[in-house]
Amino acid sequence: MNDINANDAVLVSEYMQGREYALEILINRHKQRIHGFIFSKVLDRDITEDIFQDTFIKVIRTLKRGKYNEEGKFLPWVMRISHNLVIDHFRRNKRMPKFQSRNDFDIFDVISDGQDSIESEMIESQVHEDVRRLVEELPDDQKEVLLMRIYKEMSFKEIAEITDVSINTALGRMRYALINLRKVIDKHNIVLTK
């Protein structure tokens, strides 16, 4: 059953029965989201790649030992693993992680049934609106890269080609956009959580 449209739980089950392709589908399905989460914390491509690889080594070991029992919550489980590895990275390097708070990982993302309540949808909508307003305050070159990367999900190579700059310049603009957003958030004590 080599079905790329199968849900995560089915693919996990397939992989645990020895069908290696199922894990590849899962990794491809969630790579961008997990990669983006890790990068938003460490702001370094090489470290992001290392933590991403370590995350899936842990995933594979857990699945191979038959210890997975997250009942269809594959992505939140993998995100929790990557979150813990990010914290481990900062502990090893004796640097503070770039989390809004010590408890930036939201347990409710893990235990929710996936059905957002009307209240949480309203809060999320407000958070998105707040973020849009903050983004508008960025310098135009930083805002352009941030919008292309986050909202249009373009690669830095594509962004560099469209904006006619080097990939390093595009990466630098993204980095400064994130730094500037953090400064504004910290300065105004803005809480961007669901």
According to CATH, the fold-level topology of the largest domain is: Rna Polymerase Sigma Factor, Chain: A
Largest sheet: none
The geometry reads as: globular
Q: Output the radius of gyration.
A: 18 Å
**Total beta-strand segments:** 0
User: What is the name of the CATH class of the largest domain?
Assistant: Mainly Alpha
Q: Give, in order, the helices and strands.
A: HHHHHHHHH
Number of domains: 2
Low-confidence stretches: 96-103, 106-116
Distance between the termini: 38 Å
- Overall mean confidence score, pLDDT: 78
In terms of DSSP E residues, the strand content is: under 5%
Q: Helix share of residues? A: 55-70%
**What structural class do you assign from the helix and strand content?**
mainly alpha
> Counting H and I runs of at least 4 residues, what is the number of helices?
9
CATH superfamily of the largest domain: RNA polymerase sigma factor, region 2, helix turn helix motif
**CATH architecture verdict of the largest domain:** Orthogonal Bundle
Provide an overview of this structure.
By secondary structure, the chain is mainly alpha-helical. The protein folds into two domains: 1-114, Rna Polymerase Sigma Factor, Chain: A; 116-194, Winged helix-like DNA-binding domain superfamily/Winged helix DNA-binding domain (Arc Repressor Mutant, subunit A, Orthogonal Bundle). The protein has helices at 8-16, 21-42, 45-64, 74-92, 107-111, 118-136, 140-151, 156-163, 167-187. The longest helix has 22 residues, at 21-42. The protein is globular and about 50 Å long. Mean pLDDT is 78; it is low at 96-103 and 106-116.
